[in-house]
Amino acid sequence: MAVMEQVVLSSGRRMPVLGMGTATYPVPPDEIMTSAVIDAIELGYRHFDTASVYGSERAVGQAIVTALERGLIRSRDELFVTTKLWCTDRVVPALQESLRTLGLEYIDLCLIHYPVRLKGDKQMVFTSEDMIPLDMPTVWEAMEKCQSLGLAKSIGVSNFTCRKLADLLSHAKVPPAVNQVEINPIWQQRKLRDFCSEKGIHVTAYSLLGAIGVFWGSNNVLECEEVKRIAQSMGKSRAQVCLRWGVEQGGSIVVKSFNKERLKENMEIFDWHLKEEDKERLSLVPQKRLILVHPFISPNGLYKSHAEFWDGDV
User: Fold this and answer.
1) N or C, which terminus of the chain has less Cβ within 10 Å?
2) Looking at 249-295, which runs of residues are DSSP E strands?
3) pLDDT in tens, 127-166
4) What is the homologous superfamily of the domain 6-310 according to CATH?
5) Where are the domains of the chain?
6) 294 is in an annotated binding site
């Protein structure tokens, strides 16, 4: 079993550097997701990333129960589970509902999924017409309440820019422990990572491989010529090169796979390093954001362009 590196968050909680993601669309049957999570636990994964809108919380919870029954883990405390508040949710009731679905007494990390507010039902597919103004101070105060009540051991955000983080920090009593964002060799987010480092906010990278297989994904990351060249020269897979690069940026990573062999391959990144010249060449790769959140953008909506939504970072 691979030795899993950990980071210490500003909340004092330890988080495994590598997490298994569960975001996919369409949502597979629970038994497929549950089986994959059990495989991951058996391989040594201890960090699992879910969200209410993913439809994966129940399957993750079932996998934890089964892992305990089989003796794959001795207690729930061995695991680090992240879930996310969807844009239609009221904070405390939504987290309580997630805990019931997961079958857990607490969540290790609860994130605000996007810095937006949506009306209507909870679903991954929506339009800009569903957007309404977000009262961030009130939402964050409720997140802080979740932590004070012990429902979440740590709280944080996802898809926040430097400007949105600065606004949040101006009124937060408890600063966000984590900002989970798209990071990969073709969208490295150096400005955002530097800002978060300065403010003591840990950065978790998603879509390190480009989110292949879902409607918002792309094969541009794994088809990057530098990634392919490094993989060939080192005898590693292109996915391993991207994941190792992500770890060497000083953050944590979340990667999705339901295939046991790929899950195993994704863990085999902790006993080797990229060469300095390869990291330098990767730093020069042309940059392009993959996750453009088209549904949030409308000429008549709250955000009229991608540049406006991402505060100029596109």
Assistant:
1) N
2) 252-255
3) 667 777 889 999 999 999 999 999 999 999 999 999 999 9
4) NADP-dependent oxidoreductase domain (3.20.20.100)
5) 6-310
6) no
